[in-house]
Structures are given as C-alpha cells and as structure tokens.
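Design job #97: recover the sequence.
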C-alpha cells in the first residue's frame, strides 16, 4: 500500500492514539498546574529560610524523581498504579506516573523562575504590609507570570516526549501507534507520519507558549 492508503487504513487507530495521548497530557498537565505550581512556590519560600528541613525534603524528592530513568520509573510504579487504580493498562493508569513526573518537573522550573524575581518586589510587598497570600498572588506570581508560562510550555513539551514511552507499558498513545502500526509492521511511512505529527504538535505548543509568555511579559 502507498503511504496515503496506509494512513487511511489506520485512521481509526490513529484517532484513538491521539485521544489516548490527549487523556495522558490533559491529566498530567492539570496535575502539574494544580500541584506542581504550589509545590514550586513552597520550595521557593522555604528555600529562602536559613535552614529548612521542609525544603531539603522536598528538594530531595523532586531531584530523585527527575533523575530517575523514566521508563524504569514507570515500571517501578506499576504495582502502586495497579493498587490505586485497579489496572496498569490504558491512558488513565499511564497518567499516574506521568503526572508525578510532570509535577516534579514544573515544581523545579517554578522554583527557578521565582528565584529570578527581583528582590525589590519582595521589599515592596513587605513595605506595604501585605499578607503572605497577597504577596504570593499579587506580587510573586504576577511578576513571574511570563516565566511561569514558558516553564509550563517546557513541561508540556517534555510530557509529549514522555507520553510516547507509555505504549511500552500498555498506555497507548501516538508513540505506541508509531511502533505498533509503523515499525513492527514495516509500514515506515506510517511511522514517519506519526513522528511528523508529533513534531508539528510540539511546534504548535511551543509557539502558543512563547506567544502567551511574550504577551504577559510586562517588560515588552
């Protein structure tokens, strides 16, 4: 079959794979925003203390997760995933280890972005006598919003790459489609089409993130 014929033939499987990738990405990125962002803020605030057991503990956990080989990390979490979700197969169970990695990655990037916030912002907040919550919401996050969007974009792009591995452990997705229907069946045109599709997705995501960050950057 020609490439066009092969793609049309596997179109239902392609749509299913895209849906599975969308589920994994949606869950993991939501977890990164809802948990990774507050975790990064907490790490930044505790880091500024003279000595903080809380920061040392969080820093150790995040460092271990980020340094763990991803495929081995996923395999190591299979018993826990099965215990919590009843299964380790499918896009939703696959989202569990992916979410943990997304949280740790975005937390670290958030901490790094907040460290670049000028000290004058903190001094201004203190001089105005704002509460801790007001300082975080109206000064710290507002000042760092452009960098936080870029950090989130980097996290999303990383998760797209990580999600392609999940097919090896039964998570499905576009990476699994490329291997199963392209490489293993010697349909290399289908495999390259899936690869190009992922590259286009990454370019779109990166463009959207850069554009949003530029719009939010108050220095522009």
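Job complete. Output follows.
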């Amino acid at each position: 079959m020609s490439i066009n014929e092969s793609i049309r033939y596997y179109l239902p499987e392609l749509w299913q794979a895209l849906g599975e990738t969308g589920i994994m990405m949606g869950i993991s990125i939501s977890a990164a925003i809802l948990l990774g962002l507050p975790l990064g803020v907490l790490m930044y605030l505790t880091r500024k203390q003279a000595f903080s057991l809380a920061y040392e503990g969080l820093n150790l956990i995040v460092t271990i997760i980020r340094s763990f080989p991803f495929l081995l990390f996923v395999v190591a979490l299979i018993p826990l995933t099965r215990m919590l979700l009843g299964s380790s197969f499918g896009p939703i169970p696959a989202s569990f280890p992916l979410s943990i990695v997304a949280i740790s990655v975005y937390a670290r990037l958030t901490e790094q972005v907040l460290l670049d916030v000028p000290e004058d912002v903190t001094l201004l907040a203190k001089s105005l006598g704002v509460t801790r919550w007001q300082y975080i919401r109206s000064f710290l996050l507002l000042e760092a919003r452009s960098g936080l969007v870029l950090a989130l974009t980097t996290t999303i792009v990383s998760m797209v790459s990580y999600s392609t591995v999940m097919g090896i452990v039964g998570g499905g997705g576009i990476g699994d489609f490329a291997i199963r229907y392209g490489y293993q069946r010697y349909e290399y045109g289908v495999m390259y089409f899936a690869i190009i599709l992922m590259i286009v997705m990454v370019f779109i995501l990166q463009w959207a993130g850069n554009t949003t960050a530029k719009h939010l950057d108050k220095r522009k």
